[in-house]
Fold these 2 entries.
Entry 1:
Amino acid sequence: MTNKDLQIIEEHESCVRSYVRSFPAVFTKARGYKIWDDEGKEYIDFFSGAGALNYGHNEPNMKKKLVEYILDDGITHSLDKATKAKTEFLEKFSDVILKPRNLDYKVMFPGPTGTNTVESALKLARKVTGRTEVISFTNGFHGMTIGSLSVTGNSMKRNGAGIPLNHTVTMPYDNFTGEDMETLDYLERFLEDNGSGVSVPAAIILETVQGEGGINAARFEWLKKVDEICKRWDIILIIDDVQAGVGRTGTFFSFEPANIKPDIVCLSKSIGGYGLPLALTLIRPELDQWKPGEHNGTFRGNNHAFITATEALSYWEDPKFEKSIQDKSDRITKFLQEMINKYPEMKAHLKGRGFMQGISSDVEGFSEKVCEHAFTNGMIMETAGGQDQVFKLFPPINIDEEGLEKGFELIEKSIKDAIKQMNLKSDTVTN
Amino acid sequence: MTNKDLQIIEEHESCVRSYVRSFPAVFTKARGYKIWDDEGKEYIDFFSGAGALNYGHNEPNMKKKLVEYILDDGITHSLDKATKAKTEFLEKFSDVILKPRNLDYKVMFPGPTGTNTVESALKLARKVTGRTEVISFTNGFHGMTIGSLSVTGNSMKRNGAGIPLNHTVTMPYDNFTGEDMETLDYLERFLEDNGSGVSVPAAIILETVQGEGGINAARFEWLKKVDEICKRWDIILIIDDVQAGVGRTGTFFSFEPANIKPDIVCLSKSIGGYGLPLALTLIRPELDQWKPGEHNGTFRGNNHAFITATEALSYWEDPKFEKSIQDKSDRITKFLQEMINKYPEMKAHLKGRGFMQGISSDVEGFSEKVCEHAFTNGMIMETAGGQDQVFKLFPPINIDEEGLEKGFELIEKSIKDAIKQMNLKSDTVTN
Amino acid sequence: MTNKDLQIIEEHESCVRSYVRSFPAVFTKARGYKIWDDEGKEYIDFFSGAGALNYGHNEPNMKKKLVEYILDDGITHSLDKATKAKTEFLEKFSDVILKPRNLDYKVMFPGPTGTNTVESALKLARKVTGRTEVISFTNGFHGMTIGSLSVTGNSMKRNGAGIPLNHTVTMPYDNFTGEDMETLDYLERFLEDNGSGVSVPAAIILETVQGEGGINAARFEWLKKVDEICKRWDIILIIDDVQAGVGRTGTFFSFEPANIKPDIVCLSKSIGGYGLPLALTLIRPELDQWKPGEHNGTFRGNNHAFITATEALSYWEDPKFEKSIQDKSDRITKFLQEMINKYPEMKAHLKGRGFMQGISSDVEGFSEKVCEHAFTNGMIMETAGGQDQVFKLFPPINIDEEGLEKGFELIEKSIKDAIKQMNLKSDTVTN
Amino acid sequence: MTNKDLQIIEEHESCVRSYVRSFPAVFTKARGYKIWDDEGKEYIDFFSGAGALNYGHNEPNMKKKLVEYILDDGITHSLDKATKAKTEFLEKFSDVILKPRNLDYKVMFPGPTGTNTVESALKLARKVTGRTEVISFTNGFHGMTIGSLSVTGNSMKRNGAGIPLNHTVTMPYDNFTGEDMETLDYLERFLEDNGSGVSVPAAIILETVQGEGGINAARFEWLKKVDEICKRWDIILIIDDVQAGVGRTGTFFSFEPANIKPDIVCLSKSIGGYGLPLALTLIRPELDQWKPGEHNGTFRGNNHAFITATEALSYWEDPKFEKSIQDKSDRITKFLQEMINKYPEMKAHLKGRGFMQGISSDVEGFSEKVCEHAFTNGMIMETAGGQDQVFKLFPPINIDEEGLEKGFELIEKSIKDAIKQMNLKSDTVTN
């Protein structure tokens, strides 16, 4: 065991740390979907840095480009001065991602974190509309700084603010109140009644698939309807694609299959390609009404990330890439559905879409147990949802067949281990 | 001219961009205090990434360690799982920085930006005390997300919030109202009068030298007195050392010569050493009352930055390093004072301390002109203050004599160019 | 026409004035349900000072007591010093109202207005629970000062605040989203999901019948269910009975038939009996945790109002009084239902209960027209609801048969006049 | 002793009650400056309902008019419909008060309490300017509803809100930080520095003499300078004359001797003349931009108060009245100065001006003791200030010589009693 290093953590790091508690090992190396600890133990990584490592660990082409750049004394840190690394990224992002999708966005580089792109989006929406309120949704997660936290649902995180979180209204996400209620009728009822206490907001912000909130995937028609409401009421639609974007759901942007064009899109996590900090705020040109420097940040010019981000875009030049993600997504769906059917004692149902799927179990504590056994069995996998009721699969989107199958094996083994440990019986037997 | 690349910026990047406007070149390479654009023009960099490049660009030892790490497939992104790169940093930071200074802090890794460490500090102070208000100071700058922006003075930045910024009280910084008023008597008068409308706050947050606010250095006795007030009223003292820390003022922490031990210290910018995103929140152990995961962030485990940050700490193992910064600081002071005396038409006075000094000119627009000429003359230098009334020198703290002298030459030349262009006359002549 | 006096109003009074615009006459005298203007024209008053004159104008017994008191130099203004007038009121209120209903409240005298009792209730609920949020309902109306306005739904009124109104969440009132949705399931779904963004509030505040909001009467089982939710989640239930209380709905407190005992009750308007300013906040004894003077107000000891309020309570000593209100309420219901059936072109349905009923017409502008014609025909009657879609009957609760019938005649005449003027046709004809 | 009645209070009234604790008697009758309890004990009233009874209790002319009006079935309650009682008041207020002072205000009738006029003033200032912040002053007192409380300094009262009080900045009142600091230079320094964190506010609100805050009278040149700052920065100046107005300081409006014309003036307390609830908000015509009904209230048409208020204005028709107040004010000043000189053991100094003067004692608890002895000696007198350090004289402004002298006698006796009880020695003796 790596006692000494974990003791260093224990002794020196704030008790706010969390994943080191679930995965008590000291990691040293990683490649693709594999990661090793300091004793040489290998793990299959189906966590992917919570969606920041969609291309796996240390992808070779990006690695090569990055090392060359560093050896060549390329600019590392540039604030928002122009660098060759930046203009190459901007050009390729436009050519490979935006133009083929018929999208026309201005690119803003806020600080290189998800919460920073969300804060910039909220500020801009309020500035442009002159309104203060923002509508967010139940179980949404948008970040930990005060602006982003105000549109985040989780009560433990919200309480951490230490101040009341204002200027926001939470509305029910798709399916929040059960399938028979159309949550958007409810939302619009509030907008149209001038006695509702809810004024027309500056923006509506949402994730198309809620990751932290429990791998809740909104229906495409629901997203379409949100888009229509925004247009009808002149509300700015912000899609927070920090986790669901960059291919995680099968298309580059998660909202593509809903056939909508948001006013503002927040990207971070995997946009840097290699796990390096980077964030973008994509802005419909008419809304790009910032004054120079009105939002800034020291690390908005992280050129190492520009280099790897540019290389990562190469994946998307070949249309077969998107196809392959979708094919493997179907494979994941099939596998999870098999598990649900084969192990009814899990009382489980399928959640999410693409490479952002999971199993929600009604058995209290079960999903956590599965993840614990997975770790023992050599796999990194995480739970999601307010009660940790979901275990979720976040493999790299460029994983090969073999990796996927290895992962499935470990997951099934972990499910069986958890069922055994918790002594769960199938209802068909017990009833 | 690099027209094509600057056009790409113009076409694709949000109009929020700022420094590319002051420094219209496309940069490609950098080493130490030098930076080159794509036409091969060399610039002396006395800007240092607004304090994020205290060790200069692409410092060779850090570069070597970083490349080795990458080539070796070291973990890049780890959230807050334990990695060897992280434990090595924690240990060395404790051994080289904290222990010798008799400091005992828990280390929190918030998201890797300055605003994120500030947000985490404010949240923790409010959580621990159960109070909501925070006192900040005139012309303070702490970041651009809503929590940090609430304690930032600049009105243009504040207006960008689009919502009222609350739960904060601004008090006058040292010397804000002129030398004959003791601003802290004023502050304490508010605390002790129960009819003052100002309640005892959760925290007082300040920079010991205000960078963005105009290179305003508080007197050590003023800092000492703030510390005493905090102790007397049981208020948490947060020092935002994001810009002034990591040697910028001559000691590792800027507050060392005032002989105080803040409750919470915010570090970012140069803590990563190489210009890579990293931030730390240092917390007095008794205050480390976070719940696991109560504040988190995707890039809080940026291992590339751990590698370079660890290497950077080597500088501080040798006591001569600190001495050398202080000696060169005296050289800077001497030079600036000479300029002030030699060019009375600047109507200037000296600001700041250490490697964070500048000249404030009462001639409207003069300092901006100096920076413009500096750029033409081959130097990157920036203004500070609400009216851009200060031009400031931020050379790397490990710069050699030669570099410093080269910089001084270019500055004097730029001063002369600016005086000539603005046709300024010395008062002694005109009167 | 009373031109000169109306010109004085026009010239000197702020344009915020409103009712003088709908009822452009100068009134001089009033008795019972009758009111006269300065030209001697008589009006039937079915407005009753928006519910402040439940016993009619200048009720003779109260008038007698009041004049005697004044002639005798009884204390007029006493802040919250003890006066005989006050102790007599307190004792009789306890004996006649509280004890027979098995209620046990402490009586607080805030400033003598509805908004002041609401503000005091909200402050106390927040103080006692240590929580900040309050849940209110769509189309609720609670007053115009910032605290009360924050729980008021009307957007025009809210915009008047000039600042964002915070610390409140608006939930759908009974029937807000149509009959097939149980709005309280929705509310509780938010409370129980820890990712909903809605925390457990200090209080829930509501009117059992929303007056300004459109004479919306909540079902008794809905009120009962709110009460259960409050108990289950340890939330303070505040009933704002400022308008619906003091007999307006047929019982002294409007919530009696729902068989609930709120934690805090707000009373004003008719509690003074004679139309004199007075307000009470009734507080469950365990919650009476005020510090002395923590909420105060100059006119909290309006002794003239104590005198008339005490006399007004005599009505309630005789159980026949309540019975008579209820009988006449049935008469009002019957009349309004007849109107709805007889004039289908109004596209109308019945609203409210007791002496707080009205007709909501789906024909835009119709209800306003009815009130306009009523005024011409010699009747004071007002609209309610966000689109003024309801004309409402607020006769004095001690009105006699004759008065009621006179009123009905004028209303039917005014309906006919409005139908004629707007040239409405019955659907059965036009279809 | 009036045990039974005080027990009723104890049993039934909320513990928020306060004055009944300082003055434990049950009052029954009052006339002029005299008040009697139920045992027939007579008290000299130098409290005057905290400034709501400037004309004394039950002034005979007002009493006569009021009784006649009631007997004649004059309208009691009218919301903001026109009544003869109202137009007569408006006309006389314009003729007797506004025109002779060359003032031109629109009159708004908010709810009939001080806090309501303040709330209406703040709302209007924010609406008209489109700004949110309001500057108030240390030790200001403006009311207990959330809007007014936000501009009130007292910490106990503020804490009662249960929510953070925002959108306001507290600046130091005249002399707050001692005589050698010009507090307004400080305020303006904040306005002019765009890094100060304080934006240009919608309004500045202040009392010319702070009553609750400790009888602090601002110098006329200070008031004049506030006025100039407001003009220079286009800030709305609100004078809260609720307590200091209606002759209390020697002129009808307290700001007259400073020769300023505020944009908005808040009046309540004694404007009704007889102690009946009434409040006015006086608005410079250009600022009267309310929408009809944007601020309203059930008791904004309290016609009994219109009747007595109109009669009260008769006092001001005779210029000798103002002169007589000022002459007696000099008498009060002289008396208090004598006391201060004669009893140096009080360590006292003079506060306030006009009929709003008091003695501030540096001996802890002394002023409270004086008031306690005064009560025993047959006088109602109150303390003021955050530490109750001031005992204040608020006699009726129409008091005769005899009443004043009687009061003085009782005060001197109470001072002597307090000195004796506390065993205070003169410093000249002890040193």
Entry 2:
Amino acid sequence: MSHNTFGHLFRVTTWGESHGPALGCVVDGCPPGIRFTHAEIQALMDKRKPGQSRFVTQRREDDVVKLLSGVMTDEDGETMISTGTPISMLIENTDQRSKDYGEIARSYRPGHADYAYDVKYGIRDYRGGGRSSARETAARVAAGALARKVVPGLKVRGALIQIGKHKINRANWDWDQVDQNPFFCPDAAMVPVWEDYLDQIRKAGSSIGAVVEVVAEGVPAGIGAPIYAKLDQDIASLLMSINAVKGVEIGDGFASAELSGEENADEMRMGNDGKPIFLSNHSGGILGGIATGEPVVARFAIKPTSSILSERQSIDADGRNVDVRTKGRHDPCVGIRAVPIGEAMIACAIADHYLRDRAQTGGRS
Amino acid sequence: MSHNTFGHLFRVTTWGESHGPALGCVVDGCPPGIRFTHAEIQALMDKRKPGQSRFVTQRREDDVVKLLSGVMTDEDGETMISTGTPISMLIENTDQRSKDYGEIARSYRPGHADYAYDVKYGIRDYRGGGRSSARETAARVAAGALARKVVPGLKVRGALIQIGKHKINRANWDWDQVDQNPFFCPDAAMVPVWEDYLDQIRKAGSSIGAVVEVVAEGVPAGIGAPIYAKLDQDIASLLMSINAVKGVEIGDGFASAELSGEENADEMRMGNDGKPIFLSNHSGGILGGIATGEPVVARFAIKPTSSILSERQSIDADGRNVDVRTKGRHDPCVGIRAVPIGEAMIACAIADHYLRDRAQTGGRS
Amino acid sequence: MSHNTFGHLFRVTTWGESHGPALGCVVDGCPPGIRFTHAEIQALMDKRKPGQSRFVTQRREDDVVKLLSGVMTDEDGETMISTGTPISMLIENTDQRSKDYGEIARSYRPGHADYAYDVKYGIRDYRGGGRSSARETAARVAAGALARKVVPGLKVRGALIQIGKHKINRANWDWDQVDQNPFFCPDAAMVPVWEDYLDQIRKAGSSIGAVVEVVAEGVPAGIGAPIYAKLDQDIASLLMSINAVKGVEIGDGFASAELSGEENADEMRMGNDGKPIFLSNHSGGILGGIATGEPVVARFAIKPTSSILSERQSIDADGRNVDVRTKGRHDPCVGIRAVPIGEAMIACAIADHYLRDRAQTGGRS
Amino acid sequence: MSHNTFGHLFRVTTWGESHGPALGCVVDGCPPGIRFTHAEIQALMDKRKPGQSRFVTQRREDDVVKLLSGVMTDEDGETMISTGTPISMLIENTDQRSKDYGEIARSYRPGHADYAYDVKYGIRDYRGGGRSSARETAARVAAGALARKVVPGLKVRGALIQIGKHKINRANWDWDQVDQNPFFCPDAAMVPVWEDYLDQIRKAGSSIGAVVEVVAEGVPAGIGAPIYAKLDQDIASLLMSINAVKGVEIGDGFASAELSGEENADEMRMGNDGKPIFLSNHSGGILGGIATGEPVVARFAIKPTSSILSERQSIDADGRNVDVRTKGRHDPCVGIRAVPIGEAMIACAIADHYLRDRAQTGGRS
């Protein structure tokens, strides 16, 4: 709805700038009785946290989530139970390096929102990107951690499948590999390639784009809606809302353009257990906007980090030509840390539709 | 918000099934004083209308839009002026061929929403796809015709750039060609290739996917918002809401994954007229979710029509294995008629953000 | 959300002017499988219909509701079943008396929206009040007819309890009387008093205010929410949205101001059947914004019709002083026809909260 | 929209329980460039703060608002400037008296939300009323402080006009008196009467209802909308959302029921300065849902505090009959502290409509 809120029934409002005292979110509409631990949230936060390897920004943030409302602690002193009231979560900013922002306060960094932002608002918190900083996504991951709990049996996993021109070999896909390397890479053979490649880019002060794939299993068949609340529509919307994302695909995505109707049809048969089986999943688990029960598969492309050491031509707020190079701590490939964010967005979309389906159809699906 | 409404301030609610008496939309939030003629709406409707060539469905619909509210007629007896109240538009269904739906009433057509729809609602208007029919998009085009008028100077144009493996040569791009052939193809050299190719597909009772590109010029710099109301996010959402769309790109899209930060930077300089100039437009006119003033460029992939003559394996509502072939009048490439629909969706997204910007910043951009 | 839509999950969008070809509404979010007949809707429409007695406007409208989408007809050929898609309902305007609007097109009728409307929009359909006409409420009654069906066991009834200074004797309250007189009056003894009184007012070309009370039984305990979606809040909002309403009360309403905490407490005991019993209902069936299961009781005050025959001082659109008297067909007491409208609004609010509760808590209440 | 958010373009989301670590709100949609000081917010917070006199609860809270995002500090080091991003405000709970809640954790206090809440959610933070505590209204006052700044020239003032049967004499109305007594009473002669009366009630451990009136001056003519976004509708909604409110009136309110059309007409004349003048304001500044430019006048009735020392019959969560008396620190007349809350709600409604008008009509009004 509004500019800093997403979701209709599982509603998340985020707030905060990169260099303010804190950032956070309010999750409204979480059903009562959802059980989770602080450790479960924190484990997901840690996947996105900066400073985890030499391939991501060296900013150091603990990203500890404080829960301020909407939960009671169970008798074990550890499990939290949602009460149905809004859950406010706060994350302090601790590593706001004091530096001279004089230059970029006035100059527009190419590829960043600086120019467009100034045109819109006429005032801009330039420190660390302000509201446009990717630090905002910490709040998304926290909200996504709750969303995963709302839908029984939901499992959402993401992986990085391409950096620059280097794509994984899908035949090597192994989910167990994803947490074994700093790239969330499911193809063990690709890891050393990416390491070498990113080291070069990092040392050159350059950056590179990437592609992330997220797969959600256990999505109840029937959630979604046929027209303007297609499940894939809301997934596309939320993935595109992640900083630096420029493309989104569901199922076969752009490859569908080259398929015939015969090839693209996901044929069905009744299984031995009396349940319908899909013989393929070109649709990525969604037909006509509604989940089929097959895994939901989405991909998104992330452009290279705009903060690079090479000088680029730009202008400043006074309308003068300037050359800008962006010093500081940056991710050479923001796609890496986009993996847990993509997971969070998809978990939130599914949780929202799960509740919406319960409203309209009584959750018959 | 709800399942059949999109937009926040330029709000469109559509209704209607393929085989009911009519379909239509209500456009709420249109500013007062917007002037347009019925002929202007109808010209856009005609672009989407079935039966225009042998490459689209042979269903015959006039698709005449009746305006039922929200406008007054000017003294010339022709120009309509919006009054600021909801504009209700109605399109009658006239060519609902009476046929026996007995078979598909129970069988789930592969690739269609039939199965997912039944799981969700437990009741389904199977005639012509019911609510999931692409006839719903007629209402979108009517709404889009108004949206184009809301933003002064806005120009939104689309083209088909790929059918199957056959992609246009972008060096040949000529907007004037687009209305000269039945494909909305901007590359004259590609037209005969597509004709032959689609004739084969049509005769085989098969179908094929496609890619559409839409370019919006005159988008005011500053519209959009940095977090969950990114202009590209809402464009992605609305494009993905079109039937059969499986992928969406903004600017360089998935190709961004292969770019370095140096390549991707849209550098700027002050122009001779004292206005900022972008030296490239990798971003597709949107940075950090906010319009830069450059042309907004979006692409979307459409899967092949699921209705094909070849038998495909499926199940029916009683859980029996069946083989389904879909007779009747179908588009061999739904991508063709998706061009005006994509234009409409982008016009609506831009109109909505134009009004939202006016609310928050007073339209300073 | 938007200006012509209400409800969050049972969403109603109305459109249409008094003197256009038609008016109507789109009901979005109605669950699938709701069964109703056209006659049931029409019976409620007839309660609001003009021309039913000499005490209401003599405009003659059939107010026949056409259902254009969202339903299938059952095998009996009569019962309609909602499919879960938007239900579009249309009511034609048939008695638009052709008259010279020259005068009031420019003059602002005191007590009407004319002046404020022109300030806002700068353009106004002055014929019959345009969008501000009470004819818009026909669409509300149609939507309310569906809303009543959404909540199993819901019974919503209204009555007129005061005209001018003449209040009913609550000791005489008899619901069976309500349909026996042209005033929806539950007190048989008051009917002749009101007849004489309104005849005088009518003959004098004057008008008078009134108070309506609506009681909803069968409201599931637990619907509503503690903060900004209080059930009474949404009832107040929708009642205040009815033309000419100037006050709303829930339960004891303004009389609560004179009560002590001891008097106001709705004490409870367990009933013999093991269910909780409230010993009184000062709260009007809502505590802390949530339904208690007791009857929901709401009242609203309607100001006198602003259209009167006596001249009143005003100005015109050119800033000149003018004296205005409003000829034509008017209700001497708009409160009468407000009864079915109030019922409809409360039915819609309850249906909406019923679905919202189902979303958040699984409908455990 | 959602259950803990209100407003469409000036959107406020509140969160927090009475006995959690903190409560707060996120204000989204505030225009950029709004200037205010922390002291201005705090002055309004202090009006609502507990412990200010013997006539309100003795809970001691500083209610200091921390601004966590969405503002930059001007060069004077004091003035804050909104940046257009969400403004997060946090208020710590400091006086959460540790006591044994064992009893009321299980028993339902008559007149409170306890029973309805348990039916709905099945889990309840019983400490101090949890989410239903009036402490939530602190966040509303903070949001209202910003809302007042959004509309240039807006002045919103409230007063208590009735406690129990003791109504002020409107002839004595003096706004300067309002801040001179602990009741926000505009009638100096009534102050000693209320003092004696409330002392009795307080000593008896009883409570009493009240009526508040709020007047907003400087409301731009033209804001509001004719159908479901009537300005009075949204005011009614927000006033009814305040804990314990049972009735709302605009302008003459329920007294309108006794007026004739002649009496109720707010006649107009052109003033000497060439601007329209209303000769009366029965409408309370709103006609047909749209502001006329006259002062907006609203009243609301607050029921007596449900927490009283006398035993009252009730049941507990185990379905047993119990007798409940509510010890602790309570307001004998919650109506007193409702004055600044009512002001905040009306300021927020006006700010929201001001922005909505700017969107649809370009703020021409």
